[in-house]
TrEMBL record:
This is Merlin-like. The gene is Sgsm3-001. Transmembrane segments: none annotated. Its main location: membrane. It comes from the Eukaryota.
Length: 661
């Protein structure tokens, strides 16, 4: 085996870890390998062909970022290793195009710039307004998550995705995380339909308008010792005040510079109105990019300033050379490789646009199909609802028909019953009419009877007055009879006493006893008759005196054949006989008078009871007449008490009354 092959096999490998903004890559390369080898591996791995914008950077012992020389070995550039033995490198964009959307050809190149700008804004290397920060964040969310979907992207999904600069949050301290999220979500919802490449391109369009985009700043001092900022970008070299990185004090276009050099920490820039054709560290400038100035001045202006250290001067010179070369390259005809890349980019763009259009059509068709499906489902639901409604209505109609049939039967039965009731009602109406006619006749008859009863009442009132007059007359007669009786008794007592005095002899008494006469002086005579008269006067309704004066002695005597009176002869004195006859006659008259008075009292009571009965019957008939007048049908025509007219007795005078009884 050849010796050089064995030596190659025995060569050592080194581990390199490359950190990009998208992923971390690890390679094992020969320790004598150059940086260009590792750079090509990275570009081949990620598919990057626009390699002139990128470079490999590392952090030196002073914690400063430096760029590796591609034509030198890795181990010759004083790179620190990590604790695990890896060489740590960073794959970043070293140079920036003038117009991002036009000069960046590949999508992967735009994606790498997008990630780097996103990191620079978050770390405050790039300063922008709060509105621009919100808009950039919304495009970044669109590039990462796609279209906004409220069902998926619910509140709180951006908590870990929002990386706003701290100065923006400090400027609006009242804004909470949810409020920032709401603002970004509102912008995010407006980017519907943008793909990842389109969203990243829109992001780059906004970033390239920022004043600090693509500028590498270095801390310098002028010859007077004033601290300033030196800015190197794709178009020019600018000088900034220490307090302002956005508005340059002076700006030198690459076409206006002839040479750059440094000596230690002193950096010299030569400016001329006519670019040099050869010599100088800036390289040869083609005559076709000569300034339009007509005046040619060979005198060069020299600009000097001081950097912190020679390494910084070396880095500034390297960046100036690279930006100047790209500046000149953009103004030349594109190389064959660039033309191929642009053609492939156009083809890829057309292909992707076709795919996008196809996907859009398919998406539209899918959406249309989904919409049609949803409409059909809604129509189907509506038809189902309508069908259910119709079925319900059909069932209801069937139930209604059954109910109607039942109601028809019931109505027919009711009509029959009503017809029967109508017939009955007609018969009842005829009966009622007949009863009404009968009641009217009865009413007329009752009216006539009422008129007769009024006449009878008048006659009864007249009879009552006649009875009262008769009663008064009887009282007077009774009183007169009592007086006459008292006078008669008195006279009889006087005559008796005289007879006793005249015949106060034994013979006379014997004669009286013999003849059967006795004259007891103190014996009451006709006491029962007088008491009967008093009772008749008290019981009658005629106001008669209740107490009639009674005599304790009665001069009359009653003949008693069975009595035996000793000492009286059969034959007596004529005067005595006459006296006895008178006494007997008086007693008979009193008895007859008492009987007549008792008879009249009884007749009066009977008449009074008859009158009361007639008045009561009249009162009852008057009440029934009142009810009949209020409602004709209230009482049947054959109901109610009827007093026969022949039962009413109205005596015209006392003679008729006595004759009747």
């Amino acid at each position: 085996m050849p010796l050089h092959i064995l030596k190659k096999k025995r060569s050592k490998l080194i581990s390199v870890r490359i950190s990009t903004f998208d992923a971390d890559l690890e390679f094992s390369v020969d320790q004598v390998a150059k940086v260009k080898h590792v750079f090509d591996l990275i570009c081949h791995t990620i598919g990057l062909r626009e390699t002139w914008y990128f470079g490999l950077a590392y952090t030196d012992s002073n914690n400063k970022q430096n760029w590796l020389k591609l034509d030198k070995k890795i181990l010759d550039q004083n790179i620190l290793k990590s604790d695990d033995g890896f060489i740590l490198l960073k794959f970043h964009a070293k140079f920036y195009p003038e117009v991002l959307e036009e000069e960046l050809i590949q999508e992967v190149t735009r994606h790498m710039f997008f990630l780097q700008f996103q990191q620079q804004i978050a770390s405050e290397e790039l300063v922008c307004q709060p509105e621009a920060c919100i808009l950039l964040a919304s495009y970044a969310i669109q590039a990462k998550f796609g279209d906004y979907d409220p069902d998926v992207h619910k509140p709180g999904f951006l908590v870990d995705e929002i990386s706003l600069p701290q100065y923006v949050q400090n400027e609006f301290q009242t804004m909470t995380g949810s409020m920032w999220e709401e603002q970004i979500s509102n912008c995010y919802a407006q980017h519907h339909g943008l793909t990842r490449d389109e969203a990243e391109l829109e992001y780059l369009k906004i970033v390239q308008d920022l004043e600090m985009c693509g500028v590498n700043y270095f801390n310098i001092k002028d010859i007077n010792g004033t601290e300033m900022w030196l800015g190197v970008d794709a178009k020019s070299v600018c000088l900034f005040a220490k307090s302002n990185k956005m508005n340059p004090i002076r700006s030198y276009q690459w076409s206006e510079l002839s040479d750059m050099s440094y000596s230690g920490n002193k950096f010299i820039i030569k400016q001329t109105t006519l670019p040099t054709l050869g010599g100088g560290t800036l390289g040869r400038i083609r005559p076709n990019i000569m300034s339009s100035t007509t005046h040619i001045d060979n005198v060069c202006e020299e600009i000097s300033f001081f950097t912190d250290d020679p390494d910084t001067s070396k880095l500034i010179l390297d960046l100036c050379k690279g930006n100047h070369d790209l500046f000149m390259q953009r103004r030349r005809v594109d190389s064959l490789e660039i033309q191929q890349m642009k053609a492939q980019a156009r083809e890829e763009k057309a292909r992707k646009q076709g795919e996008r259009n196809r996907l859009k059509r398919e998406k539209d068709l899918r959406l249309q199909a989904q919409q049609d499906k949803s409409e059909l489902e809604e129509k189907f639901k509506q038809l189902q609802d309508e069908n259910n409604v119709l079925m319900d209505s059909l069932r209801k109609s069937e139930d209604a028909n059954e109910l109607l049939s039942e109601k028809t039967k019931l109505s027919s039965e009711e009509s029959m019953l009503l017809s029967l009731k109508v017939g009955q009602s007609d018969s009842e109406i005829q009966k009622l009419k007949a009863e009404i006619n009968k009641l009217q006749e009865n009413n007329h008859h009752l009216t006539q009877r009422l008129h007769k009863y009024d006449q009878i009442m008048q006659q009864l009132s007249e009879a009552s007055r006649d009875c009262e007059a008769e009663n008064e007359r009887l009282k007077e007669e009774t009183h007169n009879l009592k007086k006459a009786l008292a006078m008669t008794n008195k006279k009889m007592m006087q005559s008796t006493s005289n007879n006793i005095a005249q015949h106060h002899s034994p013979n006379a008494s014997n004669n009286l006893s013999h003849n059967g006469y006795a004259l007891p002086v103190n014996q009451p005579l006709a006491h029962n008759q007088v008491h009967a008269v008093n009772q008749s006067a008290h019981a009658s309704s005629i106001s008669m005196p209740t107490n009639v004066p009674q005599s304790n002695t009665n001069p009359f005597c009653v003949y008693s054949p069975s009595s035996s009176i000793s000492g009286v002869p059969e034959g007596g004195n004529v005067s005595n006989r006459n006296s006895n006859d008178f006494s007997t006659t008086g007693c008979v008259d009193v008895q007859q008078l008492s009987q007549e008075i008792e008879k009249e009292r009884v007749e009066y009571q009977v008449k009074t009871r008859n009158i009361e009965k007639q008045l009561q019957s009249l009162h009852t008939e008057l009440e029934f007449l009142k009810y009949d007048e209020q409602g004709v049908a209230s009482f049947p025509s054959n109901s109610g008490p009827q007093v026969p007219e022949q039962q009413i007795y109205l005596p015209r005078n006392e003679a008729q009354m006595r004759t009747q009884y």
